[in-house]
Amino acid sequence: MNRRELLAGGINMAAAMSVPGIATASGATLLTRKVPSSGEQLPVIGLGTSGPFEVGESAAQRSPLAEVLAGFFGGGGRFIDTSPMYSSAESVLGELLTPEMRAHATLATKVWTRGARSGIEQMTHSEERLGTARLDLIQVHNLLDLDTHLQTLRAWKDAGRVRYIGVTHYSVSAHAQLARVIARERLDFVQFNYSPLTRAAEARLLPLAAERGVAVLVNRPFEDGALFRSVRHKPLPLWAADIDARSWGQLALKFIVAHPAVTCVIPATGKLAHLRDNLGGGRGRLPDARQREEIARAFG
After folding, report:
1. Would you say 45 and 282 are in contact if contact means Cβ atoms under 8 Å apart?
2. Each residue's pLDDT tens digit, 230-282
3. How far apart are alpha carbons 68 and 74 in whole angstroms?
4. Max CA separation in the chain (angstroms)
5. pTM of the model
6. Domain count, the chain
7. Distance between terminal CA atoms of the chain?
8. How large is the angle between the packed helices 116-130 and 89-96, nearest 10 degrees?
């Protein structure tokens, strides 16, 4: 059983409650969270590009991605995360974004190399591939050559070449190092892994980010598919309707978004049906502490 089959087995339910957020074309709303360093409100569901956007130039490969982007912005999304390490993803994204999409997009990429000169060249190429003279967020990917790149990024931010700076990692093994960096540096964003199956960030990283005023981006919310495999053949719990969740994916996203330190979750997808389902995870009611534990038990 894959995610498509799980979606097909979801519960039909009434429209979600109206909640504060970004209005979409359908009149629904997407919850938003504040970026602590600026006060900017971002939709809680973003879009990752690792994997699905690493394609060639054929229309067959790119047309579904154009549909995903149209659905993303039409559904109230804004934040898109990419990286030069994701092969062609930056170029593909840059070529598929329309002028109207660009007017609403918050674009984030990363620097992933050693040395100041190499970092500057890489970030400049990212600007060119994404078709922008100013990126919204640049993150030091996996903390590689951190001090060198932070020095450059602070200079770029002072010059108005980037709005936000941050750091990333994808593994629990790096959480302690991320915590040390957050404690000593003034950052706008931190990105790390968190899900109902992997809750290590709750112990230190999430509280520390809130304390230090750092916005949190969550990667790997579906554990590279392991989350869905953990509920294979399980029916969606009836109580999912109490928090306006119509799928296992929405339950997972609502679990993550319900943590007050989380700013935005960035699931990657190249399928319009999955994108629409993901956006549903950022609408309607969110679980309270008891319901979050029920979600974790359901996946566990």
Report:
1. yes
2. 999 999 999 999 999 999 999 999 999 999 999 999 999 999 999 999 999 99
3. 10
4. 56
5. 0.91
6. 1
7. 17
8. 30
Structure tokens at 115: 């040395």
Looking up residue 19, the CATH number of its domain turns out to be: 3.20.20.100
Residue 3 burial class via C-beta count within 10 angstroms: exposed 0-12, middle 13-18, buried 19 and up: buried
What residue has token string 């119509």?
246
Residue 163 and residue 108: Cα distance in Å, rounded? 10
Q: What is the pLDDT of residue 26?
A: 45
Q: Which residues contact 87 (CB under 8 A, 6 or more apart)?
A: 54
Among residues 167, 260, 259, 269, the alpha carbon closest in space to that of 222 is found at 269
Domain that holds residue 248: 3-299
3-state helix, strand, coil in the chain (%, to 5): 45, 15, 40
Q: For position 28, what pLDDT does the model report?
A: 72
Residue with tokens 């990917």: 141
Determine the residue type at 2.
Answer: N
Model pLDDT for residues 178-212, shown as the tens digit of each residue? 999 999 999 999 999 999 999 999 999 999 999 99
